[in-house]
Amino acid sequence: MLDAVKNYSTFIDRTNPLTKILLAAILFVTVIFIHNPNVLFHLTIIMLIMLLLLSGVKIKYLTILLIFILISGFISSLYMIFYGEGTQTLFRYGIIHITEESFVRGIHISMRGAILSLFGALVIFTTKITDVFYALMIQLKIKPKYAYSFMAAIRMVPIIVAEYFQLRQARKVRKALIHKKYISGFRGLKSTIVTLLSQSIRRAYRLGIAMESKGFSDGVRTYYHRTSFSKYDLYLIALIGAAVFAALEFGTVISPFTSTDAR
After folding, report:
1. What is the per-residue pLDDT across 78-100, written as a single tens digit (0 to 9) for each?
2. Which of the listed residues 39, 45, 84, 210 has the most CB atoms within 10 Å of its CB?
3. Where are the beta strands (DSSP E) in 65-188?
4. pLDDT band for position 227 (cuts 50, 70, 90)
């Protein structure tokens, strides 16, 4: 699926998924404790450049993603902008009171979300879901039955979605033969859920029988596809560290906001 939206791959594609997840957690904590909006502004720009250059995704898909991130960030900041506290009033109408301080706080919150969203998108576009579960089994020693169960469940999601649309089409064809109360409202929802669940249970049972017939167990396993830590993990760690350091330095030199503390 990722190959359909990507033009090329970078070293981040070869980085261990656990390293990316750990860096995402560290970046989350780091962003939470940065209260200077100037630093967050530069870090947002750096993360945007990283996503554009290192994700390898076609520009049209990145444009759609960036529009969605921009809209969601703007919506999340509205409450703080419209109803925040401050002394320098910019606009007042009824209960809406926009001050310079509340505006900066709102932009501050939206930039936090944008940074995490941009890095999260970079991780998603450069990581295969199967590699995540292999890393959990090989590096973290998660039992294979749990990892393969989640992997199989994720693989079944597109099948369930396809069955749902197939069920809708079948109901449209037989609409004249089925009473309206059985295909609309709560009863319609209930029948849809029961149908999809019954199909999923049968499919899971067949999958369990197939795994058992193949000799699947919790014993010692060998892996055709292996994940490991490499120099690319060090490259990504150094890149994120350099990005945060550069944002801190640029935040003191180039200051688009007069405020240095948005708390």
Report:
1. 777 777 676 777 667 777 777 77
2. 39
3. 89-93, 96-99
4. confident
- Is the separation of the CB atoms in 115 and 243 below 8 Å? no
Amino acid at residue number 100: E
Helix, strand, coil shares of the chain, percent, nearest 5, are: 75, 5, 25
The pLDDT confidence band at residue 186, using thresholds 50, 70 and 90, is: confident
Contact 80, 109 (CB under 8 A): yes
How confident is the model over 90-111, as a mean pLDDT? 77
Contact 133, 147 (CB under 8 A): yes
Angle at 200 between CA 195 and CA 201, to 5 degrees: 100
Tokens 């199989």 belong to residue? 152
The alpha-carbon radius of gyration of the chain (Å, integer) is: 24
Tokens, residue 174: 């037989």
Tokens of 62: 């990145």
Task: Say how far apart CA 225 and CA 201 lie, in whole Å.
Answer: 29
pLDDT reported for residue 100: 74
How many beta carbons lie within 10 A of that of residue 39, not counting itself?
23
CA distances to 134, 201, 202 from 195, rounded to whole Å, are 32, 10, 11
Answer whether 0.90 is exceeded by the pTM: no
* CA 160 to chain centroid: 21
CA distance 31 to 175: 54
Alpha carbons 54 and 11: distance in angstroms, whole number: 8
Count the Cβ atoms, other than its own, within 10 Å of residue 117.
Answer: 20
pLDDT value at residue 175: 66
